[in-house]
């Protein structure tokens, strides 16, 4: 009998020492997948309380769809890597768990606004892990050949596009996806949402922006691409079929890793008007309802580990995401010295602001993208298509 009691105690002790497993669905594809999973392995090996179990579930949109399906049918993870514009929907649907009670005292050197991307209604639901801002990419060889300087305003972009356009190539790439459009609107001092975070597509700045882009397409100095043609936008640029465009800085390492670039790549700050902003986008860790208290604590512990300066530096060098804390900057000095263009994105940090947090975004963004495509590819009246998109979005908000 005594040996049985000893055995039971031993089994109980072993179970008590087993780390809490935290299934984690992440959306960090190449080049971020390898460094993220390396950080996870380091975290798992350096402590015995928790074990993060990662699974890659596609990009932000694919991951969001898989999560919604899992929430309906069962099998959702404890921890999810969500795009920050999806966080509002998760909070509204009571899917995300508030984390303030687990955070404790955080280092005081996080850059202004970065932690706000994970907050709604004054509570922390997301732990930002990969935030990016857009940059202006251009063909530096063609600019030099035409004697063009780096555009400082959107009128400069038009002038450059006129000079660069030929029979075989267009000066600028206009993308009708919502992110690219928001970049343009915010840089001109506008917003596609009002002060309450609701759709505001008929705001004069929004209409003015779409008309501006449509005018470039009509003048035949810009190539219009929709979200389904995103890969062609990159191909056009690399094959010198277009010479300028705006994209998240995280596209940069993907471009350079795909194939040798046949020209000098120019990287500049996004042109802005006075008061203009650049959108802060990216991913955040979300603990789902149904996760245990220990899993929530483990998720926060993992995030704090990922936010250590050495891990931030490793993550930034692979992905070109923004460094979350000032303490990581000394570890990135050599990275910036190797290529001074890498400082360009960070130079915009004081002008960065969260791009979208409306819970209904996952429904109404398609209305806006449809309006953009109709105006930019179908030459429909810009104001009219935006008014129609506004009516459709407002009907969703009123439900």
TrEMBL record:
Pfam families hit by this protein: SBP_bac_8 (PF13416)
Keyword terms: Coiled coil, Signal, Transport
Protein localization: Cell envelope
Coiled coil: 372-399
InterPro entries: Bact_solute-bd_prot1 (IPR050490), SBP (IPR006059)
A single GO cellular-component term on record: cell envelope
Family according to the record: Belongs to the bacterial solute-binding protein 1 family.
Protein name: Extracellular solute-binding protein family 1
The species this protein was found in: Meiothermus ruber (strain ATCC 35948 / DSM 1279 / VKM B-1258 / 21) (Thermus ruber)
């Amino acid at each position: 009998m005594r040996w049985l009691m000893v055995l039971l105690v031993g089994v109980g002790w072993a179970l008590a020492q087993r780390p809490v497993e935290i299934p984690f669905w992440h959306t960090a594809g190449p080049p971020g997948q390898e460094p993220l999973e390396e950080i996870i392995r380091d975290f798992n090996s350096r402590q015995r309380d928790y074990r993060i179990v990662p699974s890659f579930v596609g990009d932000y949109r694919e991951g969001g769809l898989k999560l919604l399906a899992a929430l309906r049918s069962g099998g959702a993870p404890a921890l999810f890597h969500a795009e920050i514009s999806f966080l509002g929907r998760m909070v509204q649907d009571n899917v995300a768990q508030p984390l303030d009670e687990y955070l404790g005292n955080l280092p005081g050197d996080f850059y202004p606004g970065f932690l706000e991307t994970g907050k709604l209604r004054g509570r922390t639901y997301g732990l930002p892990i990969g935030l990016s801002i857009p940059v202006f990419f251009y063909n530096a060889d063609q600019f030099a050949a035409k004697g063009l300087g780096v555009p400082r305003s959107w009128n400069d972009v038009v002038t450059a596009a006129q000079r660069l356009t030929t029979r075989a190539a267009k000066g600028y790439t206009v993308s009708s996806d919502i992110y690219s459009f928001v970049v343009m609107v915010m840089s001109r001092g506008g917003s596609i949402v009002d002060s309450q975070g609701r759709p505001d597509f008929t705001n004069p700045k929004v209409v003015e922006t779409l008309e501006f882009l449509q005018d470039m397409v009509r003048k035949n100095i810009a190539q219009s691409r929709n979200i389904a043609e995103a890969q062609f936008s990159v191909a056009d640029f690399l094959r010198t079929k277009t010479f300028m465009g705006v994209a998240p800085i995280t596209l940069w390492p993907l471009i350079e890793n795909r194939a040798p670039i046949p020209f000098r790549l120019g990287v500049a700050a996004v042109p802005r008007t006075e008061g203009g902003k650049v959108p802060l986008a990216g991913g955040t860790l979300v603990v789902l309802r149904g996760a245990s208290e220990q899993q929530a604590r483990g998720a926060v512990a993992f995030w704090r580990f990922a936010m250590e300066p050495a891990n931030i530096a490793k993550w930034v060098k692979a992905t070109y995401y923004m460094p979350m804390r000032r303490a990581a900057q000394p570890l990135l000095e050599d990275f910036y010295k190797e290529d001074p263009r890498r400082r360009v994105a960070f130079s915009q940090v004081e002008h960065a602001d969260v791009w979208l947090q409306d819970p209904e975004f996952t429904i109404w963004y398609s209305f806006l993208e449809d309006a953009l495509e109709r105006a930019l590819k179908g030459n429909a009246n810009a104001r009219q298509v935006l008014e129609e998109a506004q009516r459709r979005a407002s009907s969703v908000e009123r439900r």
